Structure formats: structure tokens, C-alpha cells
């Protein structure tokens, strides 16, 4: 489950690679793939947005967050949710509820 293309992978690595200690775009893409494809755990939450096109996943323990296109399994984003976003949404649980309900994508 890769990013849509090399440009998306590169852009995403530039923005978020440091959050995971990734040394290359391919390594970061592999981390995103592993996160989105891994079995659910006790700290993982997942939903499909109302439009049925995006699968959202959040690990509430380490704040890893990812979104993938349901049909093609292309990764749209993968990052560590920053504290200011969690505060703005009223905590981890509310952030997840907000992201799951989004239709303005």
C-alpha cells in the first residue's frame, strides 16, 4: 500500500519523516504501509469515513495517524498527531471522532 506516486512519497517524507526517525522516503513509506496493514491492537482505532472512500487509523498510545483510500489502499497521510491538534479537538478520542466524521476531503 504505497503513496500515490513518488512526489507524494517525497513530500510526505519531507513533512513527517523526522517524526519516525526515517532515514529515507522508502523507509517512511514502509512504516506507513506497516501501520495501515497491521492487525488491530488494543490501542488501535479504525473507521471508514461517511463517504466510504477513506479508511482512518489511529494508535491512541503513540498518536500515529494514517488515512488510506479504501478501494486502492493508497496511503494519503501518515504522521504523529501533534499536541496542538489533540488539544484543539478536545483530546485523542475527540480527534479520532472528528477525523472519522470528516466529509470535507
Notable features of this structure?
four-stranded antiparallel β-sheet, alpha+beta, globular, 43% helix, 4 strands, 105 residues, 4 helices
Task: Describe it.
With 105 residues, the protein is α+β, with helices and mostly antiparallel strands. It contains 4 helices and 4 strands, in the order H-H-E-E-E-E-H-H. The chain has a 4-stranded antiparallel sheet, with helices on both faces. Helix 1 crosses helix 2. The longest helix is centred in the N-terminal third of the chain and has 15 residues, at 6-20.
List the helices and strands and how they pair.
Blueprint: H1 6-20, H2 25-37, E1 44-48, E2 54-59, E3 64-69, E4 75-80, H3 83-89, H4 92-101
Antiparallel strand pairs: 1-2, 2-3, 3-4
Helix pairs in contact: 1-2, 3-4
Order of helices and strands: HHEEEEHH
| Mean pLDDT rating | 93
Classification by helices and strands: alpha+beta
Helix content class: 40-55%
Give the percentage of residues in beta strands.
15-25%
**Order of strands in the sheet with the most strands?**
1-2-3-4
Kindly summarize this structure in a few lines.
This protein has 4 helices and 4 strands. The protein has 105 residues and is an alpha+beta fold.
